[in-house]
Design goal:
Elements lengths: L8 E5 L2 H4 L7 H7 L13 H14 L4 E5 L2 H4 L8 H16 L3 E5 L7 H5 L9 H15 L5 E6 L1 H9 L11 H28 L6 E13 L4 H24 L6 E11 L6 H6 L20 H11 L6 E5 L7 H20 L4 E7 L18 E4 L4 E4 L1 H12 L3
Parallel strand pairs: 1-2, 1-8, 2-3, 3-4, 4-5, 5-6, 6-7, 7-8
Antiparallel strand pairs: 9-10
Helix pairs in contact: 7-9, 8-9, 12-13, 13-14
């Protein structure tokens, strides 16, 4: 039998654009209307209206925390024009969580940007950071009395690579130079945001907040033991898994390490060259594993390996995302159980993991993949917005309520 501590955090995640619907003032909505993406988010899951219903489900499932994002473009749809009604909306969201005994974990940037910010160059221009930092300070002042856990930026390297290297997300560019520039700017933005949030709490004489990023980590493994593949795995782990974490640790701007983990990356490099070394994966299904509906390898052991590697940093760790998209609910539970077993194994070996937040609470708009992938603990019928709790969610609820697997 596996037992988690009584104060362990159990929950699920959402992000504003993926669930709220009607985020008309951000760059994703703009790209969707331009027809360059597979589907438009449109009304999404109408979580903006139905959040109380969704949080009632979360409570029923034994969740004691919930991670969500505040949509910057709602708060500041035009530069310098702040919407008090939207700020009040998020006050109501947090109050709803708190009334149910659910701890809010607030993300300040989850891939979307106000259109006005993007049109000026967005994250490619260091000087524009001041706009994001102004937003961060305003949110910290508004919510400091009711929020302890903050995520400044979700998956910064996923954002920079998908938007500026692969070109599959807005603004759809393919520039290694801009990718590096955006990555460095995001790191600097977090460092400044961390200091701003802490100063707000200090000035208000509040208990210190817990501030981090949500870093997307992958288990990089060799397909074949070639020199190219060994170099690729080394570079990917160093650059993709560790760069951000180590850069922020050097500046002492992480109170915990937020980890998003989904699975394995099987490196099999065809040619020398930086793009090949960073991106090539096995095309021949060598070392086959079960996969989710997007074809991602399911590899719970990778989470254990990463957590053991992160132990040396001596910081508490929160799993900010871990989940699987599949129509097979038995596979969904196998995925969750397997990762919780590996998570517990790392805890037994001294890794300080204090919470597990599944991605996601409800099915949602999966960015450039549209509405097809279903990650949710709760099924959404997009025709009528009906919520149906999956059996896998009930099984996870038993764990979250008892602490036992």
């Amino acid at each position: 039998m596996i037992k988690f501590s009584h104060d362990f955090l159990w929950g699920a995640s959402t992000s504003a654009h993926q669930v709220e619907g009607g985020n008309i003032h951000n760059d994703w909505w703009q790209a969707e209307q331009g027809g360059v993406l597979k589907e438009a988010s449109s009304q999404a899951c109408r979580h903006y209206e139905l959040y109380a219903e969704d949080f009632a489900i979360a409570k029923e499932l034994g969740h004691n925390c919930h991670r969500f994002s505040i949509e910057w473009s709602r708060i500041e749809p035009q530069e310098g024009v702040f919407q008090d009604s939207e700020i009040e909306h998020y006050h109501k969201v947090i109050a709803e969580l708190k009334s149910r005994g659910i701890e809010p974990v607030v993300t300040l940037h989850h891939f979307t940007n106000p259109v006005w910010f993007s049109q000026r160059g967005g994250w490619t221009k260091l000087k524009l950071q001041r706009y994001f930092l102004r937003f961060v300070e305003k949110m910290a002042k508004e919510f400091s009395s009711v929020v302890k856990f903050w995520v400044t930026i979700n998956e910064p390297l996923v954002y920079s690579s998908h938007s500026y290297l692969l070109g599959v997300w807005p603004p759809g560019e393919r520039s290694l130079f801009k990718t590096v520039k955006v990555t460095l700017n995001l790191a600097q933005a977090h460092i400044q945001a961390y200091r701003i949030i802490h100063k707000v709490y200090q000035d208000k004489k509040l208990e210190r907040p817990m501030v981090s990023i949500a870093a997307n980590l992958q288990a990089f493994e060799l397909c074949r033991p070639t020199l190219k593949n060994k170099l690729a795995v080394y570079l990917r782990h160093k650059l993709y898994n560790l760069y951000f974490i180590e850069a922020l640790l050097r500046k002492r701007t992480l109170d915990y390490i937020g980890i998003n983990y989904y699975g394995r990356n099987l490196a099999d490099v065809e040619n020398w060259g930086i793009r090949h070394l960073l991106l090539d994966t096995c095309k021949y299904n060598h070392h086959p594993l079960r996969k989710n509906s997007l074809g991602w390898d399911i590899y719970p052991q990778g989470l254990y390996k990463l957590l053991i590697l992160l132990k040396k940093y001596s910081l508490p760790i929160l799993i900010t995302e871990n989940g699987v998209c599949t129509e097979d609910d038995d596979l969904k539970w196998d995925y969750i159980r397997g990762h919780l077993e590996q998570l517990n194994k790392s805890i037994e070996e001294g890794v300080n993991v204090f919470g597990y937040i599944y991605w996601s609470l409800i099915d949602n708009f999966e960015w450039d993949k549209g509405f097809g992938p279903r990650f949710g603990l709760v099924h959404i019928d997009y025709q009528n917005q009906k919520r149906t709790i999956r059996a896998s969610a009930r099984k996870l609820a038993e764990v979250s309520k008892s602490g036992l697997i």
